[in-house]
Amino acid sequence: MEVFFLFSQFIVLFSIFNYKFDLIKYVKIMYKKIILPTDGSEYADREVARAKHLLAEDGEIIIISVAAKLRRVQFESRRSIREANEKAIEEAEGYVAKMKAKFDDSYNVTTKVVTGFPSEAINQLAEDVGADLIIISASGKSGLKKFVIGSVAENVLANADCDVLLVHLEE
Description:
alpha/beta, 7 helices, 5 strands, about 20% strand
């Protein structure tokens, strides 16, 4: 009789715990350095929410935007290429500033703007700073531009030396 009573209490407690509590909310993996790439897309809120949830108390978030560097071709002037590159850098600076504004002062957030190929620059930064995690959305760009350029997230995922959290976007 006692065994049955104890067993039934165990079943009740297990059931309450299993159904009333969401264990995932209480288990946290904390990361000390998180890379948060941005291309200016509207999906930053989901990435920021995850970064806030996964960052260790004394951790750092590094927001990066990569400006593509254009090179001179036969019919373009150096001046127009320089102006286009300067504009791309200004846009990238705006992207990181906009994302940084989503964090309050209690977070240690730094920003970085670089030129080059996005996936390579993101992975290189992660390696240089010893990042534990890269949080990137599945796709900030779409259509023909994504097809021509390729998937930055896919390349980051395939080549990163640290954990990568791929944030899927809601349709």
